[in-house]
Write a structure and sequence with these properties.
Length: 631
């Protein structure tokens, strides 16, 4: 008897389907509820985890990295657009960045209204960390935002619901329109079929595509949350959506081994990072930045170039690299003439330094404690991590989405704001590309923008298409196949991990990570790659893909692990293909093409987009113009 028979099938009919429960999804739920009430629509949100602590903000955050302060006259929208574009070495969609920028402050004000404590100065004004970032006491940030999203859905009565611990695997298509999604419960034997007028993909970015630096006893430790495994990229690709910037991974520099944030140290405490000899490489290597003009010469130096200068130090054997926390604290304290006040300030700075980690990366505080580090006395090592896919931070990979009606130039709009190139399928947060630096607040805001547009799509397209039964059965069987495989063959060997009939997901993940690390410019290859390496990597990926059919799972939890890897492999392939397509080095510090070691503005100041064609199964690569809307 097929294992599928042991699974109950739950069919959910809804107007707006929100996939994911993170920052973008919470923003989407909040906004969708508003428009649903006006238009008598229903909204369903589905998260693989529990919304209170799911996604990148699970542990909390110590800063909101996108706040413009437009009404306060702190900044202008065009300055923000320029900042973002420069940080991405000239590649960004100005229309998308500006659209989020003009609405983001209002979202932050909502967070405060819902109870998020934001640092204030004596005049009651927000305390800035840097120009665009404000400090928060944010341990409960996600819980607060999730509560507001849930409340908004609750106000819809039986027309609003959220379903947790359901893992979404695939889109359901009706011709060229996305009309739902399929998934399974990670706790119960249930398959979920969601039938919807419109679908919003907000399932975050991807981690563990590349081999992490933390292996063995530290396996699973990473900067990006291990829960996000490429579901957004897979979902949009499989639906046939055009993707952008799939080559742009993010390599954060973080406190070594526990991945603590550096922003507060660099921006708030004005700390310097140096090599082991005490040299500030941002100063000693400043001439290198000229090679990457015009971006290298702008302020602030783009994130990837800051990384790159540090990597050059490491290559020359000048590590470890240290964040001079001790010097930074001392400098602030020394600037206070009154001794008593200076002592008070020292205590305050110590508290802030620890809170920075306790608010968002508890493990870094534990590492400090267990290695006897007092930041006011001793510097801490920082280091580049492995690559991640997170378009809402300083990465950019995601779906190519339509821009806002009033701002987007021709070529950047084809329908509803934030709709992908697939009818009815919207994307936001880490799922949408080319609008970097949106962070938590901008992702929430983009979720709102997308949900409002999705509601209009529903009103304009009121029919709820019937789902093709045959395709659904096929998807259901395919989804549960790893359970079937394990069940059939588990008795063949004594050790269930070693069996010629199947591969378990952890082994599969190790193979993927090894390929990506060695051929696609991972951490142990010094983030360097070339056409021959990428081509070989693609060949190996094709072999791995064949083994996807042999993935096996003991239970529904492991079934999720299998699917996470299926999602990752698509993220990986689109990444390799796009790096291969872009014949230049644009983001040294993220990756370096040794066969094309320079920036080529004339040929490559453009978006490198890709699409997997569902009809032919072939990949298409294309260039799209970068349109500069701000001088
Ligand atoms: O500075 C499925 N970010 C920071 N933003 C800030 O504003 N301030 C900071 O201080 C930040 N820092 C930071 C940040 C990120 C990370 C990883 C760290 C530190 C360690 C960025 C923001 O967190 C980020 O921009 C947003 O969270 C992005 O929002 P969104 O919605 O795109 O992604 P999400 O919140 O991770 O949520 C994803 C959701 O999808 C679910 N999911 N659900 C169903 N089926 C599947 N198959 C699914 N796969 C995933 C997840 O459960 C989750 O709900 S700083 O240090 O860099
Ligand atoms: P991080 O902790 O590195 O994620 O940084 C938090 C915020 O500060 C993000 O907006 C970063 O882009 C920014 N940031 C971090 N370090 C620097 C730096 N050295 N110069 C300018 N901006 C920075």
């Amino acid at each position: 008897m097929s294992i599928a028979n042991n699974f109950e099938t739950v069919e959910v009919h809804t107007d707006i389907l929100i996939l994911g429960g993170g920052m973008a999804a919470c923003g989407a739920a909040y906004e969708a509820a508003h428009w649903a009430k006006k238009n008598n629509l229903s909204v369903t949100l589905v998260d693989k985890a529990s919304m209170d602590r799911s996604g990148a903000v699970a542990m909390g955050l110590s800063a909101i990295n996108m706040y413009l302060g437009l009404k306060e006259g702190k900044n202008t929208l065009s300055d923000y657009v320029k900042y973002v574009k420069n940080d991405l070495m000239g590649i960004a969609r100005d229309d998308l960045v500006a659209n989020i920028g003009r609405h983001v402050d209002a979202s932050v004000h909502l967070f405060e209204k819902w109870g998020l404590p934001i640092w204030k100065d004596e005049d009651g004004k927000y305390v800035n960390e840097g120009r665009w970032q404000i400090m928060i006491h944010g341990e409960s940030y996600k819980t607060i935002v999730a509560e507001a999203a849930k409340n908004a859905l609750a106000e819809l009565g039986d027309k609003g619901q959220y379903i947790e611990r359901v893992f979404i695997t695939d889109p359901i298509m009706d011709g060229d329109r996305c009309v739902g999604a399929i998934g399974f419960s990670v706790r119960e034997n249930k398959v979920y079929i969601f039938r919807a007028k419109t679908v919003l993909a907000t399932m975050g970015g991807a981690v563990h595509v590349f081999k992490p630096k933390s292996v063995g006893e530290g396996l699973g430790r990473s900067w990006y949350p291990p829960f996000n495994s490429g579901a957004s990229a897979y979902f949009t690709l499989k639906a046939g959506a055009e993707m952008t910037c799939q080559e742009v991974r993010f390599v954060p520099v973080r406190f070594k081994d526990a991945y603590g944030p550096v922003g507060a140290w660099f921006l708030l405490f004005k700390a310097q990072a140096t090599n082991a000899l005490g040299e500030n490489y941002m100063q000693t290597r400043a001439p290198e930045l000229e090679k990457w003009a015009p971006y290298g010469e702008a302020k602030p130096t783009p994130t990837n170039l800051r990384n790159y200068l540090m990597m050059l130090e490491i290559e020359e054997g000048k590590g470890p690299i240290f964040m001079r926390t001790d010097e930074a604290i001392q400098r602030i304290v020394d600037s206070i003439p009154d001794e008593k006040e200076a002592k008070r300030k020292l205590k305050e700075l110590e508290k802030e330094a620890w809170e920075d980690f306790l608010d968002m990366t508890v493990s870094q505080a534990l590492l400090w404690a267990s290695t006897n580090i007092k930041p006011e006395e001793k510097p801490s090592e920082i280091s580049a991590t492995e690559p991640y896919f997170i378009s809402s931070h300083s990465g950019a990979s995601g779906a190519w989405v339509s821009g806002p009606e009033d701002l987007a130039p021709e070529g950047y709009k084809w329908g509803y704001p934030n709709m992908t190139t697939v009818r009815g399928l919207f994307a936001a947060g880490d799922a949408s590309g080319a609008s970097s630096h949106k962070f938590s607040s901008g992702s929430f805001t983009e979720g709102r923008i997308a949900a409002k547009a999705a509601a209009s799509f529903c009103v304009d397209n009121p029919d709820l298409p019937a789902l093709p039964e045959e395709r659904l059965n096929e998807l259901k069987e395919g989804m549960l196949k790893p359970l079937e495989l394990f069940n059939t063959h588990k008795g063949y060997t004594q050790d269930p991990n070693i069996n010629p009939n199947y591969i378990r997901p952890q082994m599969f993940m190790f193979r993927l990570q090894k390929i990506m690390d060695e051929y696609a410019g991972g951490a142990s290859s010094g983030f360097k790659t070339s056409a021959p390496l990428l081509e070989k990597g693609l060949e190996n990926l094709a072999m791995l893909r064949e083994d996807m059919a042999s993935l096996a799972a003991e239970d529904t939890h492991e079934l999720m692990r299998c699917w996470e890897n299926i999602h990752r492999i698509w993220q990986a392939e689109s990444h390799i293909r796009t790096m291969l397509f872009r014949e230049e080095t644009r983001w040294p510090g993220y990756y370096f093409r040794s066969d094309f070691p320079e920036l080529k503005e004339e040929d490559w100041k453009c978006f490198a987009n890709c699409r997997w064609n569902p009809e032919s199964g072939e990949w298409e690569m294309l260039k799209r113009d970068v349109i500069d809307m701000v001088d």
